[in-house]
Known about the structure:
Chain A is mostly helical. Helix content of chain A is 81%, strand content 0%. The radius of gyration of chain A is 19 Å and the shape is elongated.
Amino acid sequence: MSHLGIVFALLGAAFAVALAGMGSASGVGVAGQAASGVVSEDPSKFVKVLILQLLPGTQGIYGLLVGFITLSKIGLLSGNPATDMSLQTGLMIFAACLPIGIVGLVSGMHQGRTAVASIGIVAKRPEQFAKSMLFPAMVETYAILALLISILAVNAIQL
Amino acid sequence: MAVLTMKKIHILGLKQDRKAILEYIQSTGTLQVDMALAENSIFKRTNTNASITHYERRSANTEQAIDILNTYVPQKTGLFDSLKGKEDISQEKFQQIIADRHAYNTLVAKIIDCGKEIETAKAGIAKYTLGIEALTPWLSMDIPINTFGTKSTSVFMGSLGPSLSVGEITGILEARLDQVPFYVEVISSDRDQTCIVAICMKKDEEVFEAALRKEGFTRSSFVSSRTPLEKKKKYEGYLKNFQETIDSVTKELEELNEQKGDLFILADYYRIRSEKYQILGNLIQSQNTFLITGYIPEKKEKEIQSHLQELYTCDVEIEEIPEDEQMPIELSNRTFFAAGEGVLTSYGLPHRGEVDPTSIMTLCYIFLFGLMLSDAAYGALIAIACFIMLKKYPKMTDSLAKSLRLFGWCGISTLIWGVLFGGYFGDIVDTVSEAYFGHKVTIKALWFVPLNNPMKLLIVSMIIGLIHLFLGLGIKGYQQLKHKDFAGFLGDVLSWFLLVIGLIMMLMPTSMFASIAQVEIKFSPSMKTASYVIALTGALLILLFAGRSQKNPLARLGLGLYGLYDVTSWLSDLLSYSRLLALGLATGVIASVVNMMAKLAAGDSPFGIIIFILIFIVGHTLNLAINLLGAYVHTCRLQYVEFFGKFYEAGGEPFTPFKENTNYIDVTRK
């Protein structure tokens, strides 16, 4: 039982990557469907809708970021894992990973829907591309805030 | 930081000169014609729709001919062809094409006919290929298709359900028919249908057919006096003819393709003409004169005025644009700052009398972009790619050149931030030196490594954010002072400077700040008092002036309180700059992950180095692409939402001069 700490820490990293990745996959997925529809009508809009499709993809990267920082924190990457980590520390790291995981999942999905709407703007009024890009970027703010807390927390925990 | 000053211009000329004058104005491309002049009892519009339609149709036909050539005589196109821009055409060449335009119209008609011929042939090929396909199951039948019987027998050709044998069919029919002689042969049978020929006596025809139909029999729909094989041969003959037509017409098109360059000129000529007639249709004309009213940049007015008055009998008057009228906006910045005009224009042009923030925004854009991407190698790659393209394709469109220049400078900024933070393809130097040279070499960061000290970068981000926001607020203040709106300056600008600075000073000596910034700041009691005084003065100013539009003192106070609520928006604006930290870290971390994967995959095998390079290239290309996108989007966001939110109203109408809007060529003038 005494070695469960690192298991929870790793579970935290897994949650951060998996949940945020799921959010992004869902968001990029729905946006991609809308983008394909636009390109089938007007291939010249490809670059614009591609950019909009990729906007919900950042949550996955943020998840990866936190996961990576966690892995390097608990020494799994350098080859000497901190196996004697206390259960308390492990749970703390787990908790630190939760914000980006959960917010990444939800915001990724919602950013995807917003991106779909923005792709609608580009389909009708391509000159409003810059504005259409802003709406999905608004959703992302909350993923960034969650990322911030996750990074600060993981970084601050003393092993 | 500038917008071109525009003047209003009125040109009254003789009707006989109207086309010449319009063509001159169109060729200079410096005058925006006001289309909304009202008609009156003397000045009327003339209908030019017939001419417009004529030239538009000619232009569309020429475009269609070019399309046909593009489709059937494909050109080798490079990846960067779209950067090449329009071709330069000399005035003589242009005039010569115009003089020969009737001959070219014939050429256009010929090309369009060729296109139609190919389309018809292709439709034919599709039709007869289908025909052959439908015949295939019947090929082994050796009687003509339209055999309906002999003197005393009836013949049925058609299909039944899938995969039936002669025995099965005979069995089914015998069960249904009583004492009716018949003969069935299966021509072919597959998963979809069974093609049969059945014969019965003429007198039994009706009963027999009814029995067949009960089994789902449908007669074949071919009509021909040939056997299926003969018919197939005939179809194949058609196919060959069609293919020959396509080949010969394509060859003809290949010969005509040599004149495609001329067609480009022709299409643009018609386009220019149709636009001229559109303007002409909007001018008001009396019996012998016509009137143009429009807007013109101040620096061009002399040139136009003297040219027109020298060559034509006309009156040119130039005046200031009246206060209550919109001024069309044309941005005018030095080459370096003009790079950001595209970003600004996507948000909106400044309205009349508003400061053009392009230059400050461009500087901020380059600064923030570099911080978000912050990798020296990526920055160098971007800068080199952008500047090479600018050099190699000098005739690319203006807006594209501006964007490339902007990203070139962003690349250089990225390079500098990368050196400050010690990022070169993430940690490639460490990885490679450790894996292949035995000892680890690290290029020291000139400032600090963000991953080792994220709190420091967070504080740096917030400070940069604060400066950015204050810049925006400062521009607002400058504008209000310029328009002598002193109450606005006190209530909207100075008050917020005081309140925000005061609040930050109150925050600095607290333990919370110390734990975040990892430095403890001690303020003397007098400093603490000062911070309270500053913050309170700011708050008081907001309370008093934010609701200054209200006459009622209570309502004014209420609005003032609501104005104080804006503190929350300042907080969220500031926090928004934490994306600088998030994106900056993301680039470096993913780059490190790529390097690590490359190292692990390469291992100790002799081919390791190749695997390493492959993973390195693919991984870093992806990372660069996704982070480039991120940096672009989020720098735009910081500019549009946080920075512009503080002062910029936009809403200006762009200056759209009457000019030669060509697609393919630029006519050079001496």
